């Protein structure tokens, strides 16, 4: 039997990078390559790297080194690929280095170093392309790059300026995924609410509908697919208010992932964040009045250069008043190439860690209080896993990997991908427990 060339794949970083990995793998499968689950069976390994913070850079470099040690033939792509000299200084033997979303370049390099054996019987693809997520949910990336110049971030230098996908292309992909059994679409990009800006909100038609390439039109059309649609990485521009009625009407999930990053106006100005804060609390209140079930997730940075104790206390006050449902927090990390590295008055590491602990202690209390309010409520949940003790699910308030879980003891008869109704009976600061209705 003729050997089928096999490619191993390591995907690091955020869901946007995961979507890139899926696109590359789909192109490789189209060429007849097998995808190997381990180094030993692979003829070559592709490492899709992350370069956002120093810890991610180190993880990427370590993964490249491991792949070289275990396999010997490695192609590098992804965000860290924009810093080729840094990669080759550590690992000069890599075969090729490309930047982010360089799908064709990666595939061409694989072909060069591992010529394909095309066989139409082994190259058949499912209609939704190759996925790295479970069958019942999928990430869908609507744009590349970002137009902002946040001082702590180097994403624009690695992924470029905003480039939106045509809305009919996005909707066609979403429809294929729904037809293939996907129950939840997670919409991702660097700046989801800026979608279509670079295309001047170009008008088009899709299945007889007149649509503009913009955030609202996309959300409304996705809401017609009859599956869960979850919005990530949304900047709180005024036009975001327009999609809250879609959430209240059950068209898309009542969930917004908004990276506020801080609450103090001086720190936000130093960060060069695009959204002002003075109306943020009022807008959160208005969103909750219109859609009481809305779940708000956000991320914050503590210990940004120059952050004073008073400014940090302002952030804690904001947290107490906003009562956000899901929150992630990081200490400021000086990323190679970020403008914020040059700001004066860096915060000592021990102060950063102390502030992080205070922040997370407060948020744990807030999260526990908000989850406790769900006790006694009936909720629809999506089954992610069935284990010996029962089923593990997520509610409309829970994105995969980053939010909490719903545990259903004894429900071993359920199947992954089922929607079921439960009554919430208990909760802690992260997760809830329910019984089947």
TrEMBL record:
Binding positions for [4Fe-4S] cluster 1 per the UniProt entry:
14, 50, 79
Task: Provide the catalytic activity annotation.
Answer: L-aspartate(89)-[ribosomal protein uS12]-hydrogen + (sulfur carrier)-SH + AH2 + 2 S-adenosyl-L-methionine = 3-methylsulfanyl-L-aspartate(89)-[ribosomal protein uS12]-hydrogen + (sulfur carrier)-H + 5'-deoxyadenosine + L-methionine + A + S-adenosyl-L-homocysteine + 2 H(+)
Could you provide one GO biological process annotation from this protein's UniProt record?
A: tRNA modification
Q: Which cofactor does it need?
A: [4Fe-4S] cluster
Q: How is the cofactor bound?
A: Binds 2 [4Fe-4S] clusters. One cluster is coordinated with 3 cysteines and an exchangeable S-adenosyl-L-methionine.
Which Gene3D superfamilies does this chain map to? Methylthiotransferase, N-terminal domain, Nucleic acid-binding proteins, tm_1862 like domain
Query: Where is the Radical SAM core domain positioned along the sequence?
Result: 132-369
TRAM domain location, by residue?
372-437
Give the keywords, sorted.
4Fe-4S, Cytoplasm, Iron, Iron-sulfur, Metal-binding, Ribonucleoprotein, Ribosomal protein, S-adenosyl-L-methionine, Transferase
SUPFAM superfamilies xref list = Radical SAM enzymes
Write down the InterPro entries for this protein, in alphabetical order.
Elp3/MiaA/NifB-like_rSAM (IPR006638), Methylthiotransferase (IPR005839), Methylthiotransferase_CS (IPR020612), Methylthiotransferase_N (IPR013848), Methylthiotransferase_N_sf (IPR038135), NA-bd_OB-fold (IPR012340), Ribosomal_uS12_MeSTrfase_RimO (IPR005840), rSAM (IPR007197)
Q: Where in the cell is it found?
A: Cytoplasm
Which GO terms of the cellular component aspect does the record hold?
cytosol; ribosome
Q: Where does [4Fe-4S] cluster 2 bind?
A: 146, 150, 153
Q: What is its EC number?
A: 2.8.4.4
**Matches recorded under SMART domains:** Elp3
Q: Name one GO molecular function term.
A: protein methylthiotransferase activity
One Pfam family from the record:
TRAM_2
Q: Which domain of life is it from?
A: Bacteria
UniProt domain MTTase N-terminal: residue ranges: 5-115
- Membership in a protein family: Belongs to the methylthiotransferase family. RimO subfamily.
| Function comment | Catalyzes the methylthiolation of an aspartic acid residue of ribosomal protein uS12.
Q: What is this protein called?
A: Ribosomal protein uS12 methylthiotransferase RimO
């Amino acid at each position: 039997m003729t050997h089928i060339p096999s490619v191993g794949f390591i995907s690091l970083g955020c869901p946007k990078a995961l979507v890139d990995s899926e696109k590359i793998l789909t192109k490789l499968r189209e060429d007849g390559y097998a995808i190997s689950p381990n180094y030993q069976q692979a003829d070559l390994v592709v490492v899709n790297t992350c370069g956002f913070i120093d810890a991610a850079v180190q993880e990427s470099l370590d993964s490249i080194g491991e792949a070289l040690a275990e396999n010997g033939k490695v192609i590098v792509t992804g965000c860290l690929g924009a810093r080729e000299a840094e990669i080759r200084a550590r690992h000069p033997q890599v075969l090729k280095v490309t930047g982010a979303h360089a799908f064709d370049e990666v595939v061409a390099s694989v072909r060069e170093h591992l010529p394909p054996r095309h066989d139409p019987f082994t190259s058949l693809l499912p209609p939704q392309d190759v996925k790295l997520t479970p069958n019942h949910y999928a990430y869908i990336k609507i744009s590349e790059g970002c137009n902002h110049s946040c001082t702590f971030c180097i994403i624009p230098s690695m992924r470029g300026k905003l480039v939106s996908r045509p809305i009919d292309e996005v909707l066609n992909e979403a429809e294929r995924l729904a037809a293939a059994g996907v129950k939840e679409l997670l919409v991702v990009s660097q700046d989801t609410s800026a979608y279509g800006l670079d295309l001047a909100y170009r008008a088009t038609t899709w299945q007889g509908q007149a649509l503009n390439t913009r955030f609202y039109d996309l959300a409304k059309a996705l809401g017609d697919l009859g599956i869960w649609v979850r919005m990530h990485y949304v900047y709180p521009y005024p036009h975001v208010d327009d999609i809250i009625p879609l959430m209240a009407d059950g068209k898309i999930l009542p969930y917004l992932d908004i990276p506020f990053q801080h609450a103090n106006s001086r720190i936000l100005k130093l960060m060069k964040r695009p959204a002002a804060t003075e109306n943020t609390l009022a807008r959160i209140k208005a969103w909750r009045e219109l859609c009481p079930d809305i779940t708000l997730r956000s991320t914050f940075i503590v210990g940004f250069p120059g952050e004073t104790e008073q400014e940090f206390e302002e952030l804690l006050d904001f947290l107490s008043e906003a009562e956000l449902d899901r929150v992630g927090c990081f200490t400021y990390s000086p990323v190679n190439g970020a403008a914020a590295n040059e700001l004066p008055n860096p915060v000592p590491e021990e102060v950063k860690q102390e502030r992080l602990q205070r922040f997370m202690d407060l948020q744990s209390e807030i999260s526990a209080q908000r989850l406790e309010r769900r006790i006694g409520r009936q909720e629809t949940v999506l089954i992610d896993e069935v284990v010996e003790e029962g089923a593990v699910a997520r509610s409309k308030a829970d994105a995969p990997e980053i939010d909490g879980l719903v545990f259903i003891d004894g429900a071993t008869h359920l199947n992954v991908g089922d929607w079921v109704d439960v009554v919430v009976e208990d909760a802690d600061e992260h997760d809830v427990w329910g019984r089947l209705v």
